[in-house]
Amino acid sequence: MIMIRGIIVAMAAVALSLPLNAQTRRFVEVSTQYPIISEIEIHNQGISYSSYYPLSIGYSILESYKTNPGINISTGHHFKLPYGIGMKTGAGISWVGFHRSVKVKMPSTYSGISDLVAITGQPIGSMFGMQETPVPGIVRIDPISSTVPWPSENIGKTNILYLIFPVGITYGFLNDKLILSAGISGNLMLWSRQVKNRFESNITVGSRYVEYTDTSSDGLSNFLINTELSASWLLIRKIGVVATYNHGLTPVYDPDLRFAGKSYIRNVSLGIEIGF
User: Would you say 107 and 59 are in contact if contact means Cβ atoms under 8 Å apart?
Assistant: First the structure.
């Protein structure tokens, strides 16, 4: 507890002294970001194909992502201290988009299920009812038959808007023409949109999967923590280019929607920084 209080006091002292002892420069940054989410796979899972089929074991769950370019807009202060050292703080918004696909891979031995087309070692179909909580070690997957149309390929498309709070330590080279920065960033979710599906069956329309849009952020982590590395190069007076690598430390999804494990967002961005 004493150590934590000491760290808090030291951080407060630095924050209060920066405006007094440091040269301050304001900046605005606009960049295009390219998110990266790695494919993950978990093995030896039990699969239940609705209540009509017994539990099968030895399957794998494959979770993959297709990402879309996003945008990052932020503003902040760069406090310059002696000996080339400085500190950057700011706030902004970040737009992230991706398409998650969760599939099941069959084991080497396969008894055969008439409603599914399967090839050893290959995905045999998307998992449906993704809004439901998975049971650890057991995954329920609805069989597809000729009487039930396939769900839309839009299932799993996700867009998220974050409020970001980056802070980092900087070091300048070549009279601050090149500035390197290392720090952390907090991402608070402001809005999200997920395309999901649910199974419906009634006399009027029969059995079908219904696509719907969920904006409740259900299943997504509301706050992410990331490490951040960046480099900026001054092109002309007060205008430069900046490249940033952002590595997520917090999983994108809550435990209820982690089918194959923990997924993390990494971002590579390139943009323009204007100082004033």
Answer: yes
Of the candidates 70, 67, 71, which has an alpha carbon nearest to the alpha carbon of residue 98? 67
End-to-end CA distance of the chain: 41
Note the residue count of the chain. Answer: 276
pTM above 0.90, yes or no: no
Phi, psi angle pair for 7, to nearest 5°: -65, -40
Residue 210: pLDDT above 50?
yes
Q: Where are the alpha helices (DSSP H) in 127-237?
A: none
Contact 33, 94 (CB under 8 A): yes
Rounded to whole angstroms, the Cα distance separating 242 from 244 reads: 7
Radius of gyration of the chain (CA): 24
Q: Is the dihedral of CA 166, 172, 177, 179 positive or negative?
A: negative
Per DSSP, what are the bridge partners of residue 138? 46, 135
User: What 3-state DSSP class applies to 118?
Assistant: coil
Is the separation of the CB atoms in 102 and 60 below 8 Å? no
Instruction: Report d(CA 167, CA 90) in Å as an integer.
Output: 7
